[in-house]
Amino acid sequence: MEKITVPVAGIFLMILAFVRASSKWSVSHHQQKPGSRMGSPAGCRKPPHSLLSWCLTFLLLFSSVSVQADITFPERRKNQFPDSPAHLVVPLPYSYPGIGSGYFLMGNFSNVLETTDILAMYVTGDARGYILQFDEVPIVSKRLFVKYFYQDINKAQINQYDVRGMAGTSKNEFTLLDVSLARNKVADLNLTFFDRRLNFLYQRIENEFGVKAIRDYQGILISALDYHGKETKNAFGVAVDLTDDYLDPLKGIAFNLEYQNQPKSTANDPSFYVLTYNMSLYTPMFEADTLVLNYFQSDAHVTSPGNTNPADIRNELGFNCNPLDTGCLQSEQKLVDGFINMRTNGTSASLGGKDRLRSYPQGRFNGGHTAFLGVEYRLNFKQEVKPFDYLFWKDVRTGLQVAFFGEVGSVSENSGDLWKQNRSSYGVGLRLVAASGAVYRADIANGVEGSELTMMFAYPW
Question: 0.85 exceeded by the pTM?
Answer without folding.
Answer: no
